[in-house]
Write a structure and sequence with these properties.
single chain, alpha+beta, Udp-n-acetylmuramoylalanyl-d-glutamate--2,6- Diaminopimelate Ligase, Chain: A, domain 1, Beta-Lactamase, Alpha-Beta Plaits, 4 domains, six-stranded mixed sheet, five-stranded mixed sheet, 15% strand, globular, PucR_dom, Regulatory protein, PucR_C-HTH_sf
Length: 520
């Protein structure tokens, strides 16, 4: 069980108890750890979480207020990380925790918060491994591999030594997490595995390229597996002992995936909090720079801000995972944060700024291959050097991504300044007003098309797409130009907008774009 006492008992952390809190507080189970420097972190702290802080908020917020916010959120306690600037835990914080009955611990300067998080993850993993580790020798080997930090590669190594099978682990975004025995999957095969994981239930076997049949064992939650263990042999060719070994390995891989996800969840929340700090203007430039550095992003180098959105039903967590994998595979250090409607990335960008748009287009194509049923778009913020102007770049990127996702049928990547002005205006309009506009103008066309099996709406779209050129439109629709003119006259009569004038065509264009915005 993960408790404060369990963490204090780990000598390499050097944690010391300053305020023990009420009886039993140190031995009560804690849910997880949360690192924050916000003056009011209550919106981010989960119940029974242990709060990690360096006290950067002390310059603007009394210790009593910070402790009260933590207490109100149900925090299990506070760990104060010492720094060169604060070599001792502030007396005000000690007194506030004592008054509130909230445990307070002190972390030495030389120990980073990541070490505490890793230790907590190890405690979780060890606790869950114990029942399985006691059952069989193989379980012990799996446990040793994971405990030694070998992760999924270590689990596959145990299987490989015992059964000499070609194995791979693929997550639901198509990322290959580990492989052994010559089972280095192609991108196409990894994508096939990811698509199969999304099926309910996933298939027991997969047909891969080069006439290979693979046995698939879901890893993680039954309803929505997090990954798949693939054995590049048909199930009929596996012995009972091999099948049992693979099934047991899948259970241990689930523990490893869960450990990774626990760490990833903390990183995601840390990233989300950083984005909130940038947008709200709460964090100082120095604090933002330090947090970017924790993600491997050099804050003093040129930075690119990207906002990813989609018109499909792809969960933002899956989109974020695919983005992280794609950026890692391309050697791009990045901080990726998952929002409700988009995913934001702040990346190190050492190439010419003119290359960014083309690079993003290729990235969008890659994401389309891994998320084929959903259209992912990328909004690009103005390039910046350092953290000073990140807020403006971030807002530009998110706005561009939102407009692309809602209005554009043709663009997948754009800066805000690249987008037509009417796209930006429509994205800000009230949906009910847009629906009224669509109904008033396009409704008569659709009624006519339904009653006469006509193609007036298709004709209008083609006419506007071909820059209102009758000749080009007639050729594209395989019509005589006189037939086209008759349709345009009918459109003008039904909509009350003259297709021969700029004003009329603009109204019709806005109606079509509003329809795209309000369509499900």
């Amino acid at each position: 069980m993960l408790t404060i006492s369990a963490l204090v008992a780990l000598p390499h952390l050097g944690l010391s108890v300053i305020v023990p809190g009420p009886p039993g507080a140190l031995d009560a189970e804690i849910a997880w750890l949360h690192n924050t420097e916000l003056p009011d972190p209550s919106g981010y702290i989960g119940r029974t979480e242990l709060v990690l802080t360096n006290g950067l908020w002390l310059s603007s917020t009394p210790a009593g207020e910070f402790v009260a916010h933590c207490r109100a959120a149900g925090a299990a306690g506070i760990v104060f990380g010492l720094r060169d600037a604060t070599p001792a835990t502030p007396a005000g914080l000690v007194e506030a925790c004592r008054t509130a009955g909230l445990p307070l611990l002190q972390l030495p300067t030389k120990v980073p918060f990541t070490a505490v998080t890793q230790a907590a993850a190890d405690v979780h993993a060890t606790e869950k491994q114990t029942p399985l580790a006691a059952s069989l020798r193989r379980g012990t080997a799996f446990t040793n591999a994971i405990s030694a930090g070998a992760g999924a590669d270590g689990v596959l190594g145990v299987l490989r030594r015992e059964h000499n099978l070609p194995l791979a682990v693929v997550d639901r975004t198509g990322a290959v997490l580990a492989h052994s025995g010559g089972a280095a999957l192609s991108a196409e095969d990894a994508h096939t595995a990811a698509v199969s994981l999304a099926r309910t239930p996933p298939p027991l076997e997969l047909a891969l390229t080069e006439d290979t049949t693979a046995t698939l064992l879901p890893v993680g939650t039954t309803g929505r597996p997090d990954a798949a263990l693939l054995c590049l042999r048909a199930a009929a060719d596996l012995t009972e002992a091999q099948q049992q070994a693979l099934g047991q390995a899948a259970h241990y891989l689930a523990l490893e995936i869960a450990r990774r996800q626990a760490i990833r969840a903390g990183e995601e929340r840390f990233a989300g909090e950083l984005i909130d700090m940038i947008v709200s203007g709460v964090g100082s430039v120095g604090d933002i720079a330090r947090r970017l550095g924790a993600f491997g992003v050099d804050p003093d180098q040129p930075l690119a801000t990207l906002a990813f959105a989609t018109r499909g039903d792809t969960p933002m967590s899956d989109l974020a995972a695919a983005i992280r994998t794609a950026l890692t595979d391309r050697g791009i250090p990045a901080m990726v944060a998952t929002g409700h409607a988009d995913v934001v990335a702040v990346c190190a960008w050492r190439r010419p700024g003119t290359d960014l748009t083309d690079w993003c287009r290729r990235l969008a194509e890659h994401l389309a291959e891994h998320l084929p049923d959903h259209r992912t778009v990328i909004g690009i913020g103005s390039p910046v050097t350092g953290a000073t102007h990140l807020r403006t770049a971030l807002l530009e990127a998110r706005r561009a991504g939102s407009v692309l996702a809602q209005t554009s049928r043709h663009l997948t990547v754009a800066r805000l300044t690249d987008l037509p002005t009417y796209h930006t205006l429509l994205s800000r309009a009230d949906p009910q007003l847009l629906h009224q506009l669509t109904t008033a103008i396009l409704g008569p066309l659709r009624d006519y098309d339904a009653a006469h099996d006509g193609r007036l709406e298709a004709t209008l779209r083609s006419f506007l797409d071909h820059q209102a050129s009758p000749t080009a439109t007639a050729q594209a629709m395989h019509l005589h130009v006189n037939s086209l003119y008759k349709r345009l006259t009918r459109i003008s009569a039904l909509t009350g907008r003259d297709t021969t004038t700029l004003t009329g065509r603009l109204d019709l264009l806005l109606a079509l774009e509003a329809d795209a915005l309000t369509s499900p």
